[in-house]
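Reviewer 2 asked us to include a model.

Predict the structure of this chain.
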Amino acid sequence: MPQTKDFYESLGVDRNASQKDIQSAFRRLARKYHPDVNPGDKSAEQRFKEISEAHDVLSDPEKRKRYDLLGAQWDGAGAGGGPGPQARYQTVEFDPEELRNVFKNFGFGGGTASQAPPEGGGSFSDLFGSVFGRNRARPDGGTAEVPSMEQELTVSLREAYLGTHRRIELPDGRKIEVAVKPGVLDGTVLRLPGALARVRVAPDREFERDGKNLRVVVQVPLRTALLGGEVQVPTLKGPKVSLTVPAETQNGARLRLRGLGMPDAKGGDPGDLLAEVRVRLPLPLDEQGHTWADQAPA
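Predicted model (structure tokens):
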């Protein structure tokens, strides 16, 4: 059996790294090796795939627990350690409710993947086919369509925020429209007729994503930082919003705008927008070395 890469080594983190450390390492490496930043560079593209795979596993507590326990066989062992089906659907990030329904339909009930189905229930190979779309018999005697290859679908951070539609060409030449949900995560795999499409969210020059939260740098005049006041903050939603800056706000402080982060693709609460303060010095100086702030009324 081929050995699984060391995901911790791929991200350059210790095995005891926190989720925050893992996210930080992934963001740093993703900015460096993203295909949009390195067009045509196959080695960078391969490195980006490696860190994305590592992040996909280590950022998920359940996947990480299995990987730490089973190592190279983390995605091939059943939940009870028996000869269960390969859990490759985990890397495809199907909706959990869909997976529960698939297991229920094949006689697994609420048990673990290592339990055998009851008499008359579907086989493990049938289960695989239902989850992954592999070849399986249909009532008409034919076989089901097979996702035969993976394609990448790159969207901007704004498109990931708002949701979008893309028309893509499948391996057999057909063109279909793909819906990308608002709040989609980088690395999400969409199951299409005859293919899988992995969503890549391109880095944004103004906003940085941190899970469901967004970060943005805001320029704040020195006087406002000292005495307090309001500044305008850009949002991915479109219009700017007013942010109250408390008096004596320090450079680098992060002020939270609740509910203005990324939507939750599963319908939960949206994240927050974190505005990082960059105090702007009141330049230029006049001939006497004074600034407008020196002349401003108290």
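The first helix runs from residue 7 to 11. Confidence is low (pLDDT under 50) at residues 77-96, 108-139, 143-148, 293-298. We have added this to the supplementary material.
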